[in-house]
């Protein structure tokens, strides 16, 4: 029987982690790599991060809807882009969307939102990760997030559940893998000083960092049943030919 794996995706942390990293070099390249966010999360996990004998049985995607009420004044069209993406992400087999909400910040009454605060996403991810672990939904979890606020929930799943689970903390590009490993070890040592660990296994948390090649070879199709990928998220043909295996190219 295959070992079950569950994937937990912090949607906006992933999006901004990828786009902020690949924004550098746009002028030199002559094109944007923001299209690497057009990601098939099932393909990403199955092609690059599952081990032999494992099966991806669950994907939970955590987000907050961008509505007209919270669309910021400096990003016109943001609501439409978000809705387009959500139509695409819902085509991924076995993916469940779990939503929080945004609290807008207004410069003055009656004016558009200057900025906004995302609410519930971090807590939703932490709660689902631990409840699923308690329920035995997975033997190993992959948490796709570069948010350090998830460290306590990841460590709780790995060290504090009655039956501890292995966890891969999968970070967006440009993160320092060794620095994150050090932080997790430091936090785990703090737990050991405060309480009796329910087991003695020293390495239940692994750390990985997403790379360009992995993202480029895990793209959704550009023409999906309910939505077509907008031109601003489509990567140039010469880039896809160079970076993607032929069987996984989105066109």
Using the coordinates above, name the CATH class: Alpha Beta
If classified by CATH, what would the architecture be? Answer: 3-Layer(aba) Sandwich
So, the CATH homologous superfamily?
A: 5'-nuclease
Number of folding domains? 1
Description:
With 251 residues, the protein is α/β, with parallel strands linked by helices. The chain has a single domain (3-248), classed as Rossmann fold (3-Layer(aba) Sandwich). It is 37% helix and 21% strand. The protein has nine helices and eight strands. It has a six-stranded parallel beta sheet with strand order 3-2-1-6-7-8, sandwiched between helices. The chain has a two-stranded antiparallel ribbon with strand order 4-5. Helix 5 packs parallel to helix 6. It is globular.
Quick summary:
This protein has 251 residues and is of the alpha/beta class.
Summarize the helices and strands and which ones pair or pack.
Blueprint lengths: L2 E8 H13 L2 H4 L11 H8 L5 E10 L14 H12 L5 E5 L1 E6 L6 E7 L1 H15 L4 E5 L6 H10 L5 E6 L5 H18 L10 E5 L2 H5 L20 H7 L8
């Amino acid at each position: 029987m295959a070992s079950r794996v569950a994937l937990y995706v912090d949607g906006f942390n992933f999006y901004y982690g990828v786009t902020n990293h690949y924004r550098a070099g746009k002028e030199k390249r002559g094109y944007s790599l923001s299209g690497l966010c057009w990601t098939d999360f099932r393909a990403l996990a199955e092609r690059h991060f599952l081990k032999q004998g494992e099966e991806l049985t669950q994907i939970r995607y955590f987000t907050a809807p961008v509505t007209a009420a919270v669309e910021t004044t400096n990003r016109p069209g943001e609501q439409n882009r978000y809705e387009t993406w959500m139509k695409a992400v819902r085509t991924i087999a076995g993916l469940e969307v779990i939503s929080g909400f945004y609290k807008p910040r207004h410069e003055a009454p009656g004016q558009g939102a200057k900025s906004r605060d995302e609410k519930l996403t971090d807590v939703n991810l932490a709660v689902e990760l631990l409840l699923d672990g308690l329920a035995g939904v997975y033997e190993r979890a992959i948490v796709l997030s570069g948010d350090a606020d998830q460290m306590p929930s990841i460590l709780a799943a790995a060290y504090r559940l009655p039956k501890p689970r292995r966890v891969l903390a999968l970070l967006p590009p440009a993160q320092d893998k060794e620095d994150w490993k050090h932080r997790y070890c430091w936090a785990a040592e703090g737990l050991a000083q405060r309480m009796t660990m329910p087991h003695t296994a020293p390495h239940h948390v692994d750390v990985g960092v997403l790379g360009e090649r992995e993202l480029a070879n895990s793209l959704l199709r550009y023409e999906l049943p309910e939505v077509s990928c907008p031109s601003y998220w489509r990567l140039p043909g010469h880039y896809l030919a160079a970076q993607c295996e032929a069987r996984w190219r989105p066109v």
